[in-house]
Input
Amino acid sequence: MGNTCLSDPLLFRTGSTEKYPDSPLNLKVGQENIREWESASGRNENYEGCSSLTSVVCREKVYSFGGYLGVSFPGICSNQFSYFDSTYERWVRLKTSGDNPQPRVLHAMCAHEAGHIFILGGVNQNLELCNDMYHLCIHKLVWEKIVCGDDNYREPLALSGQSLCAYEDSLFCFGGYNNISHSQKTYRYDINLGLWYLLDTKGKTPSPRYKHQCFIANANGGQMYVVGGGFQVSTDPHLDLHKLDLKSLLWEKIKCSGKAPSYRFSFGSCYDREEEKCYLFGGLSLNLQPMNDLYCFDVGSLVWFQLSFMNCPTKRLCMSCCFFQGCIFIFGGSNGRENYGDIWKLVLRRKICSLIHLAATTIRRDETILIALPCELKTLVNRFEQ
Output
């Protein structure tokens, strides 16, 4: 039984019916602060402090890998693989087998709709390039090291700070740093053939960069957007946005309207596929100062909006960010001196849950009820959670 998305009933109250002009969320005047960030701090016992971890949504769950662990920045490189328990708002470490990837940061990670997670490159504790690629099926939790079929295209593996997106039966890698120079190349990995290809793109290619973000929009047309990033050199005070048509391989710099974010890298970003909106939070400015502002880019109208909500997370960079169950989640990050172990949530859409979902969630919160259930009902509860 599917869930039905409804507008948050808390958004509406008596007052002016004039539309709030600077928001894509259909708020009325005076309502922009009705929603606020919610902190789940103190319930994240698996990460006392964590920065530079990556997270993806795969088959209705959020998974994370790697990052720096520890309160002091940068911390100890990790290869923990976890999933986010949205009921208790905490990370749960998963036991995996196979060729477990070595600890790393600044790697790329993406999820394929078939239930597969891919990890590419990054650096280890000594900032040495990892030069490898891994695959995991979430149903088996077995890591497999991918042996690529052509040594001519080792570069996508030996990079840090690159982006990775999945579209149809391919992965697309852009940018990154090879410890000598920054890249502006685009590669495609054929999942079925196990081969990398350097793409001969057209148009104006984005400048070399790393620590940017990317997302796939307009699934029917297949367009990859590259957001921000760089290497502390920019003549433009504003963040740039580029689009690659994955069919024609034509790059295009997007001419946006509205209030665009300032130049930054090491920021958090997530994409709401249902509303076709990209959200951007925080990051490091051109003068190397952490930020905590929130922006929204509407893909349909090509307009940037700055959003303001109460109880905002502290200024940070190197956080992980994802859009899940109608909410923006921010996991950890750093202020450049210490790592954060907190979790933040901003509810943008609420879902009306089925009675089965509510019953199963209530049972999971009380172990005494779960223990007292007959075996058949326990099986149903566990099956529903899966």
In short: Residues 36-351 form a domain with the Neuraminidase fold (CATH 2.120.10.80).
